[in-house]
Specification:
single chain; about 400 residues; alpha/beta; 7-stranded mixed sheet
Length: about 400
């Protein structure tokens, strides 16, 4: 099938909810993709951070194949080994107490919100259900997580939205305190605001938020949908901020390309969600969980150190391009934002980069976002950097 044939079928039979780039992908190996028309691309996007161990990883393929031959789905009415072992691995590597498995980041964040409100209801009764989130945040596209998102552009069309959210400026404790009140039950935040422009929070600010939550018995909720599973150079980003959240979410890279997400809860929150209070049909799917276990094996602590090294290398190379378009970089690990100078438009440059064989993303007001597979080779990094130089240094 040619690209034009593929595009025509998409336009005829698929809801047009995405502004797709003019590329159709047929296959991939490592961090290199092949289009339906035979063109090749270096992937600095990894399916928006999902393909954490690249394409065609033999350990990942073997785990999926072996599990598919045993059991594809059984539901959460019964026990099965893969999800239990994955929960054990995640808790062991994070110090959290227990896991809930879902399918996508928005769904996981819905569950996180439910957990916070039920924790407060169980302890204090009605009237203590407001969650403070941060301006410029992004938490999902369900009715509730859209309202949790601290960007007005997302608060349209789908009225009425779920009530019970207030927003505070990031990195400002006074701004957070202004939103406090007897109705608050939690603070929810991304440690690096991904969709908002790859904006890491200040270390001291996060420490103070943790202390404020402890003083008021608010739950500290960390959205690690994009930052988690090695993306920033540790299994979860919160580990680099020296905090332990009360509960957190993960998704994207957890199963290396299969739909999976979930919640990790502390001992404090272990018993909040009880039978009948939360559920999902496909959560903990055996094949997805087997893939998740393979990802855990591949992303060893040593490999995560390489993620930090590759991220530092990539940022240094970009900053040394001498590009008139680039004002600097920011991020953590292999979650990198290229900040553009006035007069340059991220979507236009992204289109040019893709046309020249490098897949990238956009974020925030004017940022090119890079989320390469965590296992990307230096050869592939250098090929991508060469394309960045070609386009950004014109």
């Amino acid at each position: 099938m040619t690209f034009q044939e593929l595009k025509a079928l998409d336009e005829q039979y698929v809801m047009q909810t995405y502004g797709r780039f003019q590329v159709g992908i047929a296959s991939g190996k490592g961090a290199t993709l092949t289009g339906v028309d035979g063109d090749t691309y270096i992937d600095f996007a990894s399916g928006i951070g999902v393909n954490s161990v690249g394409y065609g990883n033999p350990k990942w393929i073997a785990a999926i194949t072996e599990q598919a031959q045993k059991l594809g789905h059984i539901s959460n009415l019964y026990y099965s080994e893969p999800y239990v072992r994955l929960a054990e691995r995640l808790c062991t590597r994070t110090g959290m107490a227990c896991a809930f498995f879902a399918n996508g980041g928005g769904e996981a964040n819905e569950g996180l919100i439910k957990l916070a409100r039920k924790y407060s209801y169980d302890k204090y009764g009605r009237g203590r259900s407001t969650i403070i989130t941060l301006l410029n945040s992004f938490h999902g596209r369900t009715i509730t997580t859209l309202q949790a998102t601290g960007q007005e552009v997302f608060h349209q069309y789908f009225f009425p939205f779920t009530e019970g959210f207030r927003y505070a400026e990031a990195n400002s404790i006074p701004a957070l305190q202004e939103q406090a009140g007897d109705d608050v039950c939690a603070v929810m935040m991304e440690l690096v605001q991904g969709e908002g422009g790859v904006m890491p929070l200040d270390y001291d600010y996060v420490q103070q938020v943790k202390a404020l939550c402890e003083a008021n018995d608010w739950l500290l909720l960390i959205d690690e949908v994009q930052t988690g599973v090695g993306r920033t150079g540790s299994m979860f980003c919160f580990q680099q901020y020296d905090i332990q959240p009360d509960a957190m979410t993960f998704a994207k890279g957890i199963a290396g390309g299969l739909p999976m997400a979930g919640i990790l809860a502390s001992e404090k929150c272990r018993k909040v969600l009880t039978p009948g209070t939360h559920a999902t049909t496909f959560g903990g799917n055996p094949i997805a969980a087997a893939a998740g276990l393979a990802v855990q094996d591949i992303l060893s602590d040593e490999e995560l150190e390489h993620v930090k090294e590759k991220g530092a290398y990539l940022r240094a190379q970009i900053e040394n391009l001498g590009s008139p378009a680039v004002s600097g970089t920011r991020g953590m690990g292999l979650m990198v934002g290229i900040c553009l100078n006035e007069g340059y438009v991220n979507s236009e440059l992204a289109g040019e980069l893709i046309a020249n064989g490098l897949l990238v993303l956009t974020a925030g007001q004017n940022v090119i976002r890079l989320l390469p597979p965590l296992t990307i080779s230096y050869e592939e990094l250098n090929q991508g950097i060469a394309i960045l130089r070609k386009v950004l240094c014109k």
